[in-house]
Design a protein that fits this description.
Layout: H1 3-18, H2 29-37, E1 44-46, E2 59-61, H3 65-77, E3 82-88, E4 91-97, E5 104-114, E6 117-126, H4 135-153
Antiparallel strand pairs: 1-6, 2-6, 3-4, 4-5, 5-6
Length: about 160
């Protein structure tokens, strides 16, 4: 790798580490639906109804959207290197930082009422690079596992 390419790659990594999230940039529910419709690619993992990979299917919880939102926030607040940025109108924006390079992934959750339950759709995307080596799918796995633990611990679900 040439010295210029190395310096450029290092600058991109540093830029990805230093970016701060602006809560006022929270996307609308329609924006999240659009992002979800773009599907998966090298550095993005998004849920969809017909996904063959269980990590990429929306999850349904037997709670109201408000209860589900509280459960999501409680679960994420307990997760290392995860942070809630903002939430409103059925959209929750969280970030996850990697251990080594402190790279940031943005996770958008869309909570939709489904009869007497709430469906949670999710999209995890890297801020830097074209490929994530599967990290965004792992982010969704980590999220679903944390939500399942939180649901089991909730007083009205014991």
């Amino acid at each position: 790798m040439s010295r210029f390419r190395f310096l450029w790659a290092a600058a991109l990594l540093i830029a990805g580490c230093e970016e701060r999230s602006d809560p006022s940039a929270l996307p609308s529910p329609g924006d999240v639906v659009h992002l979800l419709s773009e599907g998966n690619r090298g550095n993005v993992a998004a849920t969809s109804e017909g996904a063959t990979d269980p990590r990429l299917r929306p999850h349904v919880y037997p709670m109201s959207p408000v209860q589900t939102a509280h459960t999501v926030v409680d679960a994420i607040e307990r997760m290392p290197r995860w942070e809630i940025v903002a939430g409103r109108d059925g959209v929750i924006w969280a970030t996850r930082r990697s251990r080594v390079f402190r790279l940031v992934d943005d996770i958008y959750l869309l909570l939709l009422p489904a009869h007497d339950s709430t469906a949670v759709f999710a999209r995890s995307a890297s801020r830097v690079g074209k490929y994530d080596l599967g990290q965004n799918r792992r982010n969704l796995t980590e999220l679903w596992e944390a939500l399942e633990r939180q649901v089991r611990q909730a007083p009205n679900h014991r």
